[in-house]
Amino acid sequence: MNLLNPKFWRNLGITLALFVGVAIISWPQYQKWKERRIIRQSRQFFYQGQLNQALISAHQVLSLNEKNLEAVRLIADILETGSSPQALIWRKRAWELDSKNKTNALAWAGSALKFGNIKSCAEALAQVPAEAKESVIFHEISGLLALRQIDPTKAENHFTRALKLDPANDAVLWHLAGLNLTSTNPALQAAAIENLEGLAQKPGSRSSSLRTLANYFFTVTNRSKALEVSTRLATSPTATFSDKVYHLTSLHLVSPGQVDPLVSTLQNEAILNADRSHELVGWMIRHGRAGQALAWYQTLGTNVSGDILLQMAVSDAFVELRDWPGLEVFLVKKSWGEKEYLRRATLARAYREQENLRASETEWEGAVRLAISNPMDLVTLGRLASNWKWDEQSESILWMLVKAFPEQQWPLEVLYEHYNENQNTPGLYRLFKVISENDSKSLVAKNNFALLCLLMGVEKGRSHQMAREVFQESPTNLVFACTYAFSQFLSGNTENAIKVLEDFPANQILQNPNTSLYFGYMLAQNSRKENARPYLQKAQSARMLPEEKFMLDDALDLLRR
Fold first, then answer.
1. What end-to-end distance do the CA atoms of the chain give, in Å?
2. What's 473's domain CATH number?
3. How far apart are CA 372 and CA 358, in angstroms?
4. pLDDT tens-digit profile of 131-180?
5. What is the pTM of this model?
6. CB 401 within 8 Å of CB 375
7. Which of 393, 349, 387 is nearest to 371 (CA)?
8. Number of domains in the chain
């Protein structure tokens, strides 16, 4: 073959051009195909109840395309199914990716309501497009939010509007009836009771309606009527086991003498059913019968007693009794399959409560190793550590999540709340170092990191440079100017530091206790005591880090001299 043949090179050039063109066209298509394939796989895991695998697969999609809306929505669904409040972050992210779609804002609002985040729910509802604000779901969520905000009039208006849009909507009717039970208007109360009685005739709403009625009669201290309604609930031919357990609570309040016979009856109904046993054990623990729950558990056959969820409930009984040696013996030879990390974590607590710190540390490390590959397991472990006030372990897990999922904000947000609440300057420094590195364009992150460095006296060259860069980028921002002025002050340029802040109106500085602290401190250190006084007075209402408290005390001491 003659490599110098011009015709050959021309033909080769055409061939390469076609190949490159195909590659350019095919690669994005391949990426989209790959995303769709992994999404299908994630949904399959989700429908099978394998939440951790589903979550990992969905995150794989985001590693290919961080704006894949379907993956973001799926992650929110997975987390909400797993009762994780982090679902809210993903609901909001879905709305950010497609703010014109009413479904995203409404899903965000619904999740926020579910997890009790009133502020986030209100924020989400405000983003619902105008044309979607005349929908049943919008008015239903708005009514429930109004109830949380203790605004019954607003709630009634929303529920009434929703019923006009869909008169056959039993869920909205139930909400409205429950609200009207609290009315001081006897006619409204009577209508509410009538509506609930009507709903109680329908299989889909019977249980919730009768429970609402029973709760109402307990509230108005008509205990005999409450017991009558509860009895109807429990003795109905279609009564569920949960209905009968609810009746136990009514008897516990009204007729304690009848509790033991019904407990015995329900134990017989549950003895061959792990789910029922789990529910009954949970009720006994909540009502001061943890010892009785443990004794009954010992009578169960291995086909039921071996159920992991039931064993978890039994562990709670030992905790309720603070029987740590008993909990240790109960757990030490068990195996909880996919929940093994929870067994080892609970065993770690049993050891720690007995001051066996070495064994506790071993079990906790084992729990972390088992959970670290599954995001939801790690989140659950972190939540346990937080509930037990194990701050060091909780913090460590959050940092693992930061490292494992650098694109996620919620671990950073939780760490910020933790460090800020505990006024932990080194922790905040470590946090904002990561945030500023992950998002080098964020002026807020760079400013916060620079200020923390200045307070701690670390990374001096870098912090002074960052403070200057942020100020130059946004010189009218008072907070940024305050950090830059403090940088100048620490560099010995006191006059220039004061001048930077003197360019802002005094009343603007005084509106913020924190900026008042820094300006007052620098004025006091410059022997301008009278000028410093109003700023230092305002600063005393600030939430301060230990280093800032030292600055305030030092400045106030100068004023007293």
1. 98
2. 1.25.40.10
3. 21
4. 889 999 999 999 999 999 999 999 999 999 999 999 999 999 999 999 99
5. 0.70
6. yes
7. 393
8. 1
